[in-house]
Design brief:
Layout lengths: L5 E4 L2 E4 L2 H7 L18 H16 L7 H11 L3 E5 L5 E5 L10 H19 L4 H16 L3
Antiparallel strand pairs: 1-2, 3-4
Length: about 150
């Protein structure tokens, strides 16, 4: 199954970028294909949360590797997967932040807001508002404004 990103135009859907255009060319003209149309989560939101995590990680001294840090913050934010192990014990582990794991911008916004609060608390000497402003500056300087 291929995943194409499409842009809605007055004449219908068109490939959104060159990668999608290359995939689109592989389909035969006149054939019928099935598609599930979903608006993907904002790339900028994804950049914001990753920058938040990286900036906080770089300014704390409790965790020695980023992946462990990311998982700790996700779990503290309540962004977890729950399962029952072989002994019947209910376990929780940090869930992914990928587009497929949280495709909805509203749900992602809740996770991001919770992570922002946790990161500000972890850094002690910065307010949520100040940390949010630092993250926005960082994103703008590295990724630009949409």
């Amino acid at each position: 199954m291929a995943r194409l990103y499409l842009k809605k135009t007055l004449t219908g859907f068109e490939p959104a970028d060159e990668t999608a255009r290359e995939q689109h060319r592989k389909y035969k003209l006149g054939e019928v294909y099935r598609a599930d149309v979903v608006k993907p989560r904002s790339y900028r939101h994804h950049c914001l949360v990753m920058c938040l995590l990286h900036l906080t990680y770089e300014n704390q001294d409790r965790y020695q590797d980023f992946e462990t840090f990311r998982k700790v913050i996700a779990k503290a934010a309540g962004h977890t997967l729950e399962y029952v192990d072989l002994e019947g014990v209910v376990c929780q582990e940090a869930a992914s932040l990928s587009y497929d794991a949280i495709p909805d911008d509203v749900e992602f916004g809740k996770v991001m807001a919770s992570m922002l609060t946790i990161c500000a608390h972890l850094l002690h000497d910065i307010s949520v508002t100040d940390l949010e402003q630092e993250v926005l500056r960082y994103v703008d300087s590295h990724y630009g404004r949409p």
